[in-house]
Amino acid sequence: MPVDIDGGGALGISNAFMAHSGASGGGSIFLKQTISELLADDPYEFSANLASVPILSNAAGGTVRVWLDGSLITEYDFGSIGMGQPEYAFLSQEFNPTVTDSYLLSIEFSRQFQASIYSPTMFIDNIQLISKAAAIPVPGALILGSIGVIVVGFVRRKWSE
Which among 29, 67, 76, 101 could bridge 21 via Cys, Cβ 3.0 to 4.6 Å? Predict the structure, then answer.
């Protein structure tokens, strides 16, 4: 089924991850990735585009939860969605790791009802984890830059004499 995950533009085939989950026979589906070296107390932003597409009938669209080492960062519950009407959402949440370390990022897809061939399919795409820390100039670079300006000025003055 063609799904345009971000909801804009022409409908086309997406390379989005899709999950068909339900309470029976496995429950939640997880995407997991270890993220190396998140810095303590630096702000990071997680964001992603979501969609839930019902197949034949009205249904519970499911819930997407984002976890970092077992702590919930954010979640989105599609609630009840109408037949043939894809629902779109955008997840975005800032967080600050407490320790500089590697972390396990987990994205969970779940529905409280039994999965069947008629259950809605959930999609996720455009996943980003971005550092929001402001760039801080290195003192050594400022000193070297200042020395370079002084040297250029001195050389120009000597050549003009």
Answer: 29
Torsion of CA 45, 46, 47, 51, to 10 degrees: -160
Residue 76 has pLDDT above 60, yes or no: yes
- Which pLDDT does position 72 carry in this prediction? 95
Q: What gap in Å lies between CA 119 and CA 126, rounded to an integer?
A: 24
Q: Which residues neighbour 92 within 8 Å (Cβ) at sequence distance 6 or greater?
A: 45, 46, 47, 74
Written in H, E and C, the secondary structure of 109-148 is: EECCCCCCCCCCEEEEEEEEEEECCCCCCCHHHHHHHHHH
The rounded distance, in Å, linking the Cα atoms of 42 and 73 is: 15
Question: Is 91 in a helix, a strand, or coil?
Answer: strand
Which candidate, 48, 55, 59, 56, places its Cα nearest to that of 14?
48
| Domains in the chain, CATH or no CATH each | 17-136 (2.60.120)
Q: Are 27 and 21 in contact (CB under 8 A)?
A: yes
Q: What is the pLDDT of residues 108-154, one digit of tens each?
A: 998 888 777 778 888 888 888 888 887 666 666 666 667 766 766 66
Q: State how beta strands 44-53 and 101-110 pair.
A: unpaired
